[in-house]
Specification:
Layout: H1 8-52, H2 58-105, H3 110-142, H4 146-149
Length: 154
Amino acid sequence: MMEFSPGISTVAATIQSAIAPVFLLAGIGAILNVLAGRLARIIDRARTLEKLHPSSTGPEHDRHVWELRLLDRRISVINAALALCVMSAVAICMVVALLFVGTLTDLSIGRIVAVAFILSMLVLTIGLILFLIEVQMSLKAIHVRAELLERDRK
């Protein structure tokens, strides 16, 4: 039975290698906080419109329906972005764990660590792209309608 006991310098080197992924994990946590906040605001707006919907009529009703549909799509997009960013964070946690497993067991798992890191970056990138798409979608509802700007008045 082979027994491997890494020295303190080996463990210290592994900790140093794990610092960058841990900082990345902190950044992903901040992104998740932003995404969760946006999701909460979208849900609050949807609930407000749901209350107004039954009593609205005409163009106002049509606007509420349009915005509710947009909010529904935004919820789906931001939820997907959240899921992808969480998957990225999980992959980064796996990278850190694998760094230590490799050190403690003297296994050659460098390729596995690299693949986990690459996958983390890919899903994080897709999550951030979805975040950008959701922001662009939100701008559709925020634009002030031309009739409210009264540009024909001086």
